[in-house]
Amino acid sequence: MRIDQIFIFGMHIRMDWRAVKFDWNKARAFLVTAEEGSLSAAARALGMAQPTLGRQVDGLEQELGVVLFERVGRGLTLTPSGMELLDHVRGMGEAAGRVSLTALGQSQALEGTISISASEIYASVLLAPIVAKLRVEEPGIHVEIVVSNHASDLLRREADIAIRHFHPTEPDLIAKKIGMADAILYAAPGYVERLGHPTKPYDLRHADFVNMDRNGMMLKGLNSLGLGLTEANFPLLTESYLVMWELVKQGAGIGVLDAYIGDTEPDVVRVLPDLEPLSFPIWLVAHRELTTSRRIRRVYDFLIEELKR
Q1: Which domain holds residue 80?
Q2: Is-above-0.85 flag for pTM?
């Protein structure tokens, strides 16, 4: 059967490819722009120049004869025509992703590129030496480290492999639990001295903490240990682990970090070292189809072995 012939419920239907008036690159440019909300954000997501992306979106509008976006301030808003088209193009994007995953999963070539997602602190402290060792053993594998403090969407190919702190629920993902890690309170020695060298959770009632989230989860977690903190104890907020850690080292307040990383830093000490730590899991996650790829399997197993150390 020719590729342009389709059978549905026993009926033969010939697709008219002449009716297709646009290419996937332009459709992808439209899809990412719609999801990101601006041309600049979409260009960063696709790793391309903003003018090039803008020309692709303009080209799609011209080919289809419709206006897809309206400018609102510095952002873009979908027109009714754009809204109607979005669901169809999103389906195309998901299908394209499945094609890529299937092709990659069937690849037996060890050489090629693989992307690994991790948070800032894990990417810089844990992944860097592991990837350096991988490059010595497998020079044909090129590694892209995707730094994100939010969970990368593996189903949409934002990464091939991810280090996470929660078990995935998607049936198309597989995960291996590396182990458990302890979250410990750290501060600069000078800051601990200013607090009067606290020995009990209640002694931290006037301490400053560097907040890492906007939804109160850090406050709730620390209070589960008996600290009795309020929002007033969190005058500093950042979503960057590296910035948080630098603030802690500079004596701006107390921070929470994986003990494996925190205990190796000479410029900080544990606060309330006898306090029960907050424990969290470390999972290595990949798409199920990727495990049939020789390259993905090699890196996945390598990461498991190295992270367990």
Answers
A1: 5-105
A2: no
